[in-house]
Each structure stands twice: as C-alpha cells, then as structure tokens.
Amino acid sequence: MKTFFNVSDLGNLTQALAEAREVKNNRFGFQPLGKNKTLLMIFFNNSLRTRLSTQKAAMNLGMNVIVLDVNAGAWKLETERGVIMDGDNSEHLLEAIPVMASYCDLIGIRSFAGLVEREFDYAETIVNQFVAYSGRPVFAMETATVHPLQAFADLITIEEHKKSERPKVVLTWAPHCRALPQAVPNSFAEWMNAADVDFVITHPKGYELDPKFAGNIKVEYDQRKAFEGADFIYAKNWSCPGVTRPADYGKILCNDPAWTVDQEHMSWTNNAYFMHCLPVRRGLIVTDDVIESPQSLVIPEAANREISAEVVIKRILEGL
Amino acid sequence: MKTFFNVSDLGNLTQALAEAREVKNNRFGFQPLGKNKTLLMIFFNNSLRTRLSTQKAAMNLGMNVIVLDVNAGAWKLETERGVIMDGDNSEHLLEAIPVMASYCDLIGIRSFAGLVEREFDYAETIVNQFVAYSGRPVFAMETATVHPLQAFADLITIEEHKKSERPKVVLTWAPHCRALPQAVPNSFAEWMNAADVDFVITHPKGYELDPKFAGNIKVEYDQRKAFEGADFIYAKNWSCPGVTRPADYGKILCNDPAWTVDQEHMSWTNNAYFMHCLPVRRGLIVTDDVIESPQSLVIPEAANREISAEVVIKRILEGL
Amino acid sequence: MKTFFNVSDLGNLTQALAEAREVKNNRFGFQPLGKNKTLLMIFFNNSLRTRLSTQKAAMNLGMNVIVLDVNAGAWKLETERGVIMDGDNSEHLLEAIPVMASYCDLIGIRSFAGLVEREFDYAETIVNQFVAYSGRPVFAMETATVHPLQAFADLITIEEHKKSERPKVVLTWAPHCRALPQAVPNSFAEWMNAADVDFVITHPKGYELDPKFAGNIKVEYDQRKAFEGADFIYAKNWSCPGVTRPADYGKILCNDPAWTVDQEHMSWTNNAYFMHCLPVRRGLIVTDDVIESPQSLVIPEAANREISAEVVIKRILEGL
C-alpha cells in the first residue's frame, strides 16, 4: 500500500476486517516489519486521539516515531507557489516536503480544510503535494476531505457490535457552535457505502455531502424516520459542503437544537448503539445521558483507532 | 502499586529506599518489565525536571513513552460536568480520559492547583477523575496538592547525605513574587513525618499547612530557632493554604526578605545541607552564594528524580 | 570527541569524510554504541531539519532521544548571573544545565544569536555555559556563531558531486527581509577554508565575516567575477557581522535584488550546482527556476544532515 486516503486503498474490506481482528489479538506480533523504520507524523492541526493512537500503533510495530507540530517548534510553511516569501512563512512546502521525507520511511499527515475555498480544500491541495513530492508512502491522519483511519475504526467497531447480518446504520447531522470540516462524514459515508450495511443519511436541507463520498445514497430529511429501526446512530456535525450552493461552503446553515441526539431520539431506534468520532461537544451534539449510556460506543471506537492505524501502517511497511 | 500520590502508597519506606539504591546501581537492569508497555505523560502545566526525569526513568525500563502537552497540540479539555460545551473547550475529560487510557498501560499526570477554590484543589478534582475513569494505574507528576516523586527523591537524597542516624530536617518557607501551590511542601511534610528524621517546619503566621499532610508537627515561627542544629534546610515558597482563614487561600501573605535563606541563615545550622526542589528564584528564595555552595544539594536532588520515578514506575509495572 | 562546534573538532577531514561514507552505507550498523544512551536535544529556537535529522541520526544509532523545546512546555530560563529573579524567568540556567545533563549522556543545543550585542553573541555566552556546567559532551545544533552540522553536511554534499579534484566554491550573500545570524556563513567559510577547494566569498561591502571563521580569504565584491568558473554556488543571507563597524552589528545594510541568484547569475558559472542550507525564502535568495533546476542540491544537502549528525554523535558515543 502506497497511500491511504480512501476505502478503495484497503482493497477487499472483509480481508481488511479479518486483518484488524488478527492485529487486535496480536498487537506486538509484527515488530520485525518496523525495525529501523521511522514514521514521521506531521500535524498542521491539533490532535489527541490521532496523535496518541497512531504513535501507539507504530510503536506496537517496533518503529521509531517522530512527531512534528508544524506550528509549534518548526518554521511556518508557505504552501502556495510563485510567491515572494517576505512574510511570516520561512520555508516553502516544496523544499520542506522532500527534506522531511528524507528522514523517514513513511508519512502520516493531518491538514484540515480551511473552509474558505471549496475548490482548494476538495482538491486536497496540501496533501497531494506530499504525495507528489515526498517519494514516500503517505497516509491521512485527517485531511481537508477525508479521515479514513476514523472510518476504518468505526467499521471495525460496527463489525464487533452488530447483532444482525446487515445492520441499519444512520449518519445524523447534529448542531455545533463552530463551522467544522466534512472529513469525518465524508469518509464515514464512503466506508458505509462500501460495507455490508443498510446506510441512511439524515441532515437539514443544504448539508448534502459531496457525491464523491456519499454516492447516490438517498438522504432522509426527516430525522425521526431515519432513526426508525436503526442499529447504529452515528452523530456528527459538519458545515455546509457547498454541493448545492457553492457560496454556502463552510457555513453554518442550521443550529436547531431539535437535531441534538437525546434519549427521545434514541427511543425511535432499534435500541441502537450511539457512535461519535470524538471530540464531542456535550449538550450540542448529544446529551450527557445518551453518551454515558451503556449503548454508547464512543470509547471502543476510539480504542479501535490504534487497530485501524496498525493495520494501515503494517500494510505500508509490507509494501516498502 | 495502582496509584502513587501519598507516602503510604509506597508501603515500607526502608524497603523503598533499599529498592532506590538497587535501581540507582542498575538502571537498565529491569527492561523486560517495560517491554511493549507504554507510559503516557499528560501535562496540563509546564515541566522541566519531571518531563525529562520521568521520561528517562521509563526509557531505562525499556518502555515506550508518549508525551502529551494538553495545551499545545491537543484539544482544550472541559473538566466540569453538566456544561453545554459551546466555548473554547472542544472535548470533555470524561471522554478524553478513557480514550487516552486506551492507548497506554499507565498514566503520569501533572495538573497544578488553580489556587482559586480551595475545595476544588484539595479534593484533587481533576486527578481523581483520571483515577476513576481511566482504568489504568495513575501516578502524580505534581497535582493540586501533592508532588510525591519530588518528596521521594528528597528522601533518597537525605538518606545519601545524612551524617547521623536521625538528622534534623527543617522545611522553611521563603518569599517569592508569585502565588505558588502547596504541593511540594505538603508532600515533603508528609514524607518527613513518615521518615526517621527530626522534622521541623518554620514559616510566617498564616502559612500553616493542611494537617492532612503536616500531621501534628509543631510549627516553629521563629526561623532562627528552627534553623539551630539543623542538618538539612529545605527551602520552599508556598501561598496561603487557607487552613486557618479559608478566604486567604492562594494569597501571598508575606514577602519579608528576612526569610530569604542566605549565609547568615545557614550559619545558625549544624553546617546544614541546602535543599530546594527547583526551579528556584535566586535572590528571593535563596542567595547565589548559598545555592552555589558545596553544601547545596539541589543538583543531586534533581538527579534523584530519575531514581524515584524509576522505582515508582517499576512497581506499577510489577503490579500490572 | 567531547564537543562539536568547529571544523577542528573533527580532526582529519579526509578521515571524517570517509567515515561519513561508511555511515551512509550502513546507518543502522552501530547500534550497540547507542544502547541505553540518551541524547537530549535542547531547542531555544525553531527547527525543522535539525530537529528531524538529529533525532533520526540518534535513533539510527539505537539511542533514546528526548526533545526539549525550552519555550514550549518548559520553564523560561534566566541566562544572566546576579539577577533577582522576580520576572518571567522561573529558573536559572546555572541550575537547569546540570539538572538537564543529569538525565542524559550527551546534549545537542540550538541557541541563536540575539543580534543585539555582538560581544555576547560572539562569546557564545549561552552555549559555553552548557559546556562549562553540564559535565556532558555538547554539540552545536546551530549556536550564535556556528552551525557545524550544516557545514559538515555541505562538505559531504560537495564531495559527492564535485567533478574536479579542487572545485571552485563560492559563498554568495543574497537579500532577505529579516536580519539573520551569521552562523551558517561562518561555519561554511571555516569548513571551506579547511577543505581542499578553491574558496571565494562575495557580498556587498560591510558584510565581511569575522576573520575567526573567514580567515584571510579575499572577498570578491563583484558578484559576477566571483561566480565566473564556479562549480558550486552556496547562497545565504546574513546580517552585518559588525567586523568593520561594530555599531552595525545585526543590521540589514543592503536589500539590492541584483544579488538574488537567478538563471542569469548561474549562466556566469561553470554550470555550477546551487546550494542553500534551507529554509530559503524564494524570490529573495533565489528564484523558483534555479532552486527547482536539476543543478539544485538543496535536498541532497538536507538529506546529508542525517549523515553529518550520525558521524558526530557516533564519535561522541565512542568517546564516552
């Protein structure tokens, strides 16, 4: 495996899930693969789960890990071409990328959407430069449009908890006080479309996800109808993806508290599990009682981030 | 050992000191214990000695170490319950704790006193949440009220330098330009009360330490009388513990330079060693000549932080 | 080797270059040297290449590495003596140095020139305190006046690419929007003077480097004449070294864009390679087409930082 951004990078999903189980049962069993190999984790944005779980996964595999916080302790990086660099940015990505790559064997990168220019974000302008100029395998630790380590961990978690062959999984939008990227719902939609589940999306009008990820899944705009019979409720806020009205890209179109997932919402489901990628704003996305209930899977989901990361890094190491 | 906050967590002190000697002579001799084990060090506050010495101790034991600075590179954490999270804090400790715990085997935590609400600080509200919700062994890298890795290192240092069976050890308050927590004097008092020493505390009126730590040790308010015959002078500033007047909690009640430890002060002693946990403000706590004198133990004390941390982590690993 | 600041610390340069080749071909071949040894990297200033390459080099050698960013996550350090410390700085270097040293086996330090007091900078006041008080081997990761890991990597790169026995190497000043230290040109000049090359320096009047580093190399003030017949062009900005007019120390005396290295400049040379230590400001130091041309060595130079660091750390380990 040379890159990891989309579900297709994993190939056969059933095999990938089997490998996840194997890794989970034998986390330290693949250390010869990682010996004298170095993972460079590059953060343009904050991180808790991804920072810890990816580092842990690489150490499980016997690797060396270097963490670089670009905005703390390193030079600020210029990301655009043809600029006279007389401002704050001391170094150009075009130099920084091959330089950073020369000190490692594979690169994990976190670079969020700016939510200003849809085209810039959805072209994955920053991350594609790493793919083009690093000469190293690159995997996403959340980019402008995708968060596949999260989606893979979510799928592993659903697989571990499903009670029927083909469970009903609902992705529901929920309110938030800030404009958030679409990376998590994009990847979750893409992965659920590829998985053996009955997948439904529900959100207020205007929040339609890019078809590149959501495919032709029908949106159920009535949240209650969407929740009926659900086995898994996956809550997440996202800002306007700008699919129907590009001018609204990155905007907050709705803050209706009726979309907050509470006990009443959960009562409409088939005793569904509650999922969220975290960090979660309590009182906005979900109520305290739902997230603290026995049906809440937010902690097992997060714990599976170590597993999804280990499978992905293991496969990249095997391909070196 | 499951937690390390108080002197009682170590059990028999004589045995613990013997183990410290053994570890100091054979720092790398216990690496099988740490193989494939991960220490997560969580800092809510700055650190130099604790950061380096604890990391070194864990690496001596063959462990993997992940350092998390909560206020740099991670999300800001909400620590109170029942809040609608529409402010700066992106994540709740109640999620963050079990998530962080899922990527490690033991947790070291630094979380200073806020010095605003005595009850909040002295209930160890933050740290107790880690103990309650992490499911992992947790040890203090200085909390709101205790700094036991420092006190243990201090005791090791006294043991290495004492010239009599039962030396006289004096904890003296000294002035400082900022309001400081009571964690260091609390733990030092608690540990000296448990050790085989003649222990005296001296400070201006109003600085009485909480009896939970100071026990029923008599305070000698006359600094000169306290210093007479002393074998070890342990200087430290602390703000008002609020024991006699809760309204004064966290306040600076005195900045009398007569309390600064200088050569004249040391001349009252039995050629005592000078100790301080560092960082120290020269010119306020102690004069240049005293801290640079041959009787100054501040560097050996700091070096023993590696040893106290290694003993504590070793015991936790043995109990996993 | 106990310290690494100047070219003379390496001894015979031909042997050092041979050792660099050996290390480059066998990066992981010296791990027994580093086992249970800890490198402490102390940064008072930002870093990308040095941070990553030095860490990688130490991990190649099987060492443990601790990275300390003094201004992020640690206490602010007082660097002057005889001060009453009632300001921002919580700890004095005179305590911090031996403390930090007690947790490691060798120290790499980055501490840039302040560019305010020439005497303070050129006396290497900060770094010399580390040498004097740490009791550990100390090497420069760029100090106030030298950057020898860069110069050594530059020499390795020239050695790998030279087409004649004794190539012509030109160090050219180039414009920049900020006042920069002289560490890189100082070390480059010092190393080129010691190497078997025909070395020329060119810069506007007033930018004369300190003879301690530049020796008695004649400066060619006509940039075009200097470039004629050159095999390697090494571009770098630096602020006034204050050799001829101490009052100008650290000032920008010239921002003439005619000094920017572009294709026309390169056409004056013997099809020279272009070199720069990075980070580089495109449009000021060099044009996009030159730095992206096949003659540009900026990436191989940076990659050789891993090698120069590994040779230096290896020699220090051998001397422990």
From TrEMBL, chains A, B, C:
The keyword Transferase applies. SUPFAM superfamilies: Aspartate/ornithine carbamoyltransferase. Belongs to the aspartate/ornithine carbamoyltransferase superfamily. SOTCase family. Residues 4-160 form the Aspartate/ornithine carbamoyltransferase carbamoyl-P binding domain. N(2)-succinyl-L-ornithine binds at E142, H176, K236, R281. Coiled coil: none annotated. Pathway: Amino-acid biosynthesis; L-arginine biosynthesis. Carbamoyl phosphate binds at S47, L48, R49, T50, W75, R110, H147, P148, L149, Q150, C277, L278, R305. Its EC number is 2.1.3.11. Residues 184-307 form the Aspartate/ornithine carbamoyltransferase Asp/Orn-binding domain. It catalyses: N(2)-succinyl-L-ornithine + carbamoyl phosphate = N(2)-succinyl-L-citrulline + phosphate + H(+). Catalyzes the transfer of the carbamoyl group from carbamoyl phosphate to the delta-amino group of N(2)-succinyl-L-ornithine to produce N(2)-succinyl-L-citrulline. Is essential for arginine biosynthesis. The keyword Amino-acid biosynthesis applies. The lineage of its organism: Bacteria, Pseudomonadati, Bacteroidota, Bacteroidia, Bacteroidales. GO terms for molecular function: amino acid binding; ornithine carbamoyltransferase activity. Keywords: Amino-acid biosynthesis, Arginine biosynthesis, Transferase. One of its GO terms (biological process) is citrulline biosynthetic process. It comes from Segatella maculosa OT 289. This is N-succinylornithine carbamoyltransferase. Homotrimer. Transmembrane segments: none annotated.
